[in-house]
Write a structure and sequence with these properties.
about 500 residues; six-stranded parallel beta sheet; four-stranded parallel beta sheet
């Protein structure tokens, strides 16, 4: 009896434990389900939040600097140019305004390397621009010479000399420099010829000095030329500032370099979206101006080698969160294909301007294709709140501006990754529109909006001069430390010690 009386409560206890275990199991399952649902909700929330992650208001400001600031002043021993030079250096800078700008920087550096007196660079009045303004017509010559006093001797022309009682002008020996020539070419072949003839004439002079040079002081000299010495003439600066003031009178504005032009489309080989007649024009232009190469549109498009269409630019901006109140200044030549390509963009962003619509003086209307129009576009893009290049491959205009805006205080840039965006646009064209805008945002969030970043080939030094032309006040690495603010006073002292304090007057004659 005792045993049976003892077993009954044990069964009850076991039953109770079993019931409790069952209830706990159910509770755990419910808890797991709840946690799973919560995690799913969080993931969903995070996924949805990516559609609003791009803070448009933040983009209207400058990018994070990380404590860096622009500085191209010398940070190590940088003696002034000697009173005696090895001869005169003439260069002819070919290409458009911005290609010429890079060539001028290279010319100054080449003169420094060879201890040569630089003759004011010549700007090629090429058949495309039909513009013979020259250096004196675009840039402030006096400012250019004065700013580079510590770096090179500069004259406006080769002076005449007396030989056997006769006045003669030194004839410069013409040389064709190799593309991306190393420093050694200038210190050997070019210098030898200069000493033999007294002067050399390098033509053509575009991309004729290697960009990547393992000497930060040489790179900083390029920045001094590009961002300090090369200043447009006062009337160009004033005209540009008046346009910027007009654009900014109603708030923020962005500039877009819409590179949907005949030369770039022909270069890229992107023909299939055009009519048969338009394709003939593009193919003819390509045959006449570029090397023969087999180009398949679908292949080019799939890897992002085609310039973005105006419609695609509009879709990117809308996906990022810009609305139809956004004011946009278009820096571009004549768009190929006409209004039918602009219509979708204009319907989304109707507040479009260009230099002819905002220029009240009418000066640009007389010179829309010349260097003046390009100079004004450059200045307006430099000073705008946001700059967006749509094709920054071989486009010197876009690449130079990206570098200048970086140096000008990390001003915001929107650089579409065409390779990442291409499959997204292709899917959309096939009717797969679900998740399109989110996919665009995800691609854009991986791009750089104008902050300091490592330069990786093929990115040009003129596009990104960090870190050589930047510094930090409190840097861990001594090489990154900012030079003293009185660096110019020290250079003035060096000039006086060399006995060439009157260099400025002599150099400008």
């Amino acid at each position: 009896m005792r045993r049976s009386g003892y077993r009954q409560p044990l069964k009850q206890q076991l039953g109770g434990v079993k019931a409790m275990f069952t209830r706990l199991s159910i509770a755990v399952i419910v808890l797991v389900i709840c946690m799973f649902m919560l995690m799913s909700a969080m993931l969903s929330s995070n996924s949805n939040s990516s559609s609003v992650e791009i803070d448009v208001e933040k983009l209207w400001g400058t990018a994070a600097s990380g404590g860096w600031r622009p500085s191209s002043a010398p940070r190590s021993d940088w003696p002034p140019p000697p009173t005696e030079s090895n001869g005169y250096l003439r260069v002819r800078c070919n290409g458009g305004l911005n290609q010429q700008r890079s060539a001028i920087c290279n010319a100054v550096l080449a003169a420094r390397i060879m201890n040569a007196t630089l003759v004011l660079p010549e700007l090629d009045a090429n058949s495309f621009w039909h513009d013979d303004s020259g250096f004196q017509g675009i840039y402030d010559v006096e400012h250019f010479i004065k700013t580079l006093t510590y770096d090179v001797r500069i004259v406006e022309s080769i002076p005449e000399i007396q030989i056997n009682g006769k006045v003669k002008k030194i004839k410069a020996k013409q040389i064709r420099p190799p593309r991306d020539a190393p420093i050694s070419w200038y210190t050997t072949e070019a210098l030898k010829t200069m000493k033999e003839h007294g002067a050399i004439y390098l033509t053509p002079f575009s991309h004729r000095l290697a960009e990547e040079i393992d000497n930060p002081e040489y790179q900083r000299l390029r920045c001094r030329v590009n961002y300090h010495a090369l200043q447009f003439k006062p009337h160009i600066v004033e005209l540009s500032k008046s346009i910027v003031s007009k654009l900014r009178s109603q708030g923020h504005f962005m500039t877009i370099h819409l590179r949907f032009e005949m030369d770039m489309l022909a270069f890229a080989g992107c023909f299939d979206i055009f009519s048969p007649e338009e394709q003939k024009i593009l193919k003819k232009y390509r045959q006449e101006n570029f090397a023969q190469k087999r180009l398949v549109y679908d292949e080019r498009r799939a890897i992002g080698k085609c310039p973005l269409t105006p419609e695609e630019v509009g879709l990117i901006l809308r996906a990022m969160g810009f609305d139809n109140s956004t004011r946009i200044y278009l820096a571009a030549g004549e768009l190929f294909g006409g209004e039918r390509f602009m219509k979708p963009f204009r319907s989304t962003f109707p507040r479009l301007e260009n230099h002819s619509t905002v220029d009240t003086t009418g000066e640009l209307g007389k010179n829309t294709m010349g260097l003046l129009g390009s100079a004004v576009d450059y200045m307006v893009c430099l000073l705008s709140d946001i700059f967006m290049p749509t094709y920054d491959g071989p486009s010197n205009f876009a690449n130079n501006l990206l570098g200048h805006r970086l140096y000008y205080g990390f001003r915001t840039t929107i650089r579409p990754d065409r390779k990442a965006l291409a499959p997204i646009f292709i899917n959309r064209e096939k009717g797969h529109t679900d998740g399109f805008e989110e996919a665009v945002r995800r691609a854009m969030l991986k791009t750089n909006f104008g902050g300091p970043h490592k330069r990786i080939s093929p990115e040009s030094f003129y596009t990104n001069s960090w870190p050589e032309c930047f510094c930090k006040k409190s840097a861990v690495n001594p090489a990154d430390k900012c030079p003293p603010d009185n660096v110019s006073e020290g250079l003035d002292g060096q000039l006086e010690n060399e006995g060439i304090s009157d260099f400025e007057e002599n150099g400008s004659n």
